[in-house]
Amino acid sequence: MNVFLVDVRDENFCRLLPGQLNRAGADDGRIKVMAFPPLGIQTLAPVLRQHGHQVRMFDTCHPRMKAGHIAQAAAGERPAAIALSFLSTTTYRQ
Fold first, then answer.
1. pTM above 0.70, yes or no
2. Segment 36-58 mean pLDDT
């Protein structure tokens, strides 16, 4: 079974790394993001793979990862399941 695992960005917990905090010095072209790692999908992926499933992970905290990319991949690969992971529903105002 082909499974997509998507970690949904939360603007309260995801920011680009400010230039003054970048200790790497030279700009190597990489985008540096301050965020919680997507532990939910990172934990689930190897378990699914051990049971013979194909898994693709998407972390929407990356500023270049857009919903359209996931939709395009889903249309092309037609996964059997798409699982969404997010930090918590309690962080949102009601």
1. yes
2. 93
